[in-house]
Amino acid sequence: MKHNSHIVRPTFILFASCMLLSGCFGKYAVYSAKTQPPSNVKGGMLYALPRTEICIDVQFAYRDTSGIPFAEFAEEMLAYDNSKARYTIEGITLSTRIKADPDRYYFVNPKGVTLQIDQRNLLRSIGMDESECIPSVNSQHKDIPNNNNQTTSYNLYDRTDTFYVRGDRPGHPTLASSRKDSRSLRQRAEDAAERIGNLQERRLQLLEGESDEHYSAETLQLMLQQIDRQEATLTQQFIGKQTTETVRFVVEPKDEKNLIDNQTIVVFYYSPAKGITDSTDTEAVAVSCNIRCIDNMKNATRFIRYRLEHNKNPDKSRLFKYRRSEMADVIVYSDLFRYQQQLPVAQFGPIIELPKGKFKARFDEKTGDLIYFSN
Question: Is the pLDDT of residue 345 over 80?
Fold first, then answer.
């Protein structure tokens, strides 16, 4: 009997230790920030459930005509149609990013539970060390570069040929080698248009082999590239420079019950003549975003709402909560175009409770979904 008691006692101690450790992990408490706990709560930390924003990146192409000298002669001398749209939409890219839901903050009294919470106050992991988690690489924090387009200044004929020496200030050279061109604006425009015509004629000669000179393929290509650059520089003085710019619009889907199935939001107003404008512009068209929940998880959501324990009052369960995003059909459209894509929306999905006891869990940093669980 004495021999058997020595075997049972270490086993009992080991079992009791495991129960104690499991019990310590299970003593954590999670409180909704909108509830009033029965008593004062000791120190802890905050986390929030994710909420999805839809990012609509619109690429505009337009001709920058500010500061060009010969704009009034473009139609007359280059046969350029001034009625052409100055602004066009080249493409639209749809994506998502998540943020903390201000209505779904929770206070955690961890009591031995390891938590990782990112700078957005969203859960990264529960019960896992930093070394066990995938490094935080969140591309959605990268903002679109701000295109500060500099306007080209055209002054090819007004400026005289000059020589600067040390000590000269800009615009005040020591020596001017020629007189200022005194021709009228029309005369300068006619000269530029004539040079454009000569360049076009020279290009045609080279392409059709009418030139007396014989060039290698490499030399011919180089000459054509030089002609293209010179022609583009002169043409820009009449019609401006083609420029592209990407503008980001952000739409936050609403999760009211009557809006999940179908909601439409006007994102911006667009005019081919003015670009982004407002509703008072009679020539503008509205660019709208329609969002419809696909409801692939309809049966699962019904089970979570009506069959899970603690579901009738989840804020009193003191368990960790997370969101499972639901797919939505997102359409950005106007009278001129239509773009459609399926995207995950966190606030359309159910709120689920993690089980009691000791476990490890990791969450997707782009959607907030649970991507790893182990107990």
Answer: yes
Residue 363: Cβ within 10 Å count = 22
- What radius of gyration do the chain's Cα atoms show? 34
**Which residues are within 8 A (CB) of 282 and not within 5 positions of it... i.e. 6 or more apart?**
none
pTM for this model (two decimals): 0.68
Q: How far apart are CA 369 and CA 107, in angstroms?
A: 20
Query: How are beta strands 275-277 and 263-271 bridged, if at all?
Result: antiparallel
Q: What is the rounded CA–CA span in Å between residue 35 and residue 23? A: 25
Question: What are 284's strand-pairing partners?
Answer: none
> Please, what is the Cα angle at 120 between 117 and 124, to 5 degrees?
30
Residue of 123, 9, 157 lying closest to 351 (CA atoms): 123
Neighbour-count burial for 154-175, b at 16+ CB within 10 Å, e otherwise: beebeeeeeeeeeeeeeeeeee
Tokens of 1: 């009997």
Q: What is the mean pLDDT of the chain?
A: 80
Three-state secondary structure of 62-106: EEECCCCCCHHHHHHHHCCCCCCCCEEEEEEEEEEEEEEEEEEEE
Give me the phi and psi of 79, to 5 degrees please: 55, 35
Separation between Cα atoms, residue 291 and residue 303, nearest integer Å: 25
Helix 185-208 / helix 217-239 crossing angle, nearest 10 deg: 150
Q: Which tens digits make up the pLDDT trace of 71-118?
A: 888 888 888 776 666 788 999 999 999 999 999 999 998 888 899 999
Q: Which tokens hold the place of 276? A: 């982004």
Q: Which pair of tokens denotes residue 343?
A: 């995207």
Q: The tokens of 270 are what?
A: 């667009």
Which uninterrupted H or E stretch holds 249? strand 241-251
The alpha-helical segments, DSSP class H, found in 185-333 are 185-208, 217-239, 257-260, 298-307
